[in-house]
Design goal:
heterodimer, A: mainly beta, 11 strands, B: 53% strand, globular
Chain lengths: 109, 114
Amino acid sequence: TQLLEQSPQFLSIQEGENLTVYCNSSSVFSSLQWYRQEPGEGPVLLVTVVTGGEVKKLKRLTFQFGDARKDSSLHITAAQTGDTGLYLCAGAGSYIPTFGRGTSLIVHP
Amino acid sequence: KAGVTQTPRYLIKTRGQQVTLSCSPISGHRSVSWYQQTPGQGLQFLFEYFSETQRNKGNFPGRFSGRQFSNSRSEMNVSTLELGDSALYLCASSLDGDRGEKLFFGSGTQLSVL
């Protein structure tokens, strides 16, 4: 079974702060996705990274895929209250996607 | 284009009962997968259907079953409910269910077993 460990599990910060969340595995993934889930809703895809070392930017969010395709990070610059949610990473190795347990982020005004 | 629709949004059942959840995928999507989400275990894969056939299955007991209809709509059934089945059940659709393909999730059905 491929496992994805996400850290930290919880994060509570003030608006304007920067933060980084991590997604780590001992397994290699052909691609890795990041989702954001807001309360009462299903996860929504933010980005897919495919190539080792790849960096993708989505406005204030920066996603990086590790060189060995075993880990990934999500950095948010100048967090806003609208960034509040559960951030999930999902790895595609075998057919069945493996999800991490998520990082619950709360951004206070 | 309408998103993935799950019904009902909320369900309250008692132990021993059974329940059926429904999922209507995005038009044109042929793959539907189901997940159970709990605070302790996160998102766990139940099964995936493609063209009315179960193509992949997670590690859940046989009490959890599903099916897919010719219009790609899917249902999930849980029999002999247990307290531990309380969870958010999410359905996701994608075009072909290929590895790494983008999943579109519904808002889920929150099931409480008393």
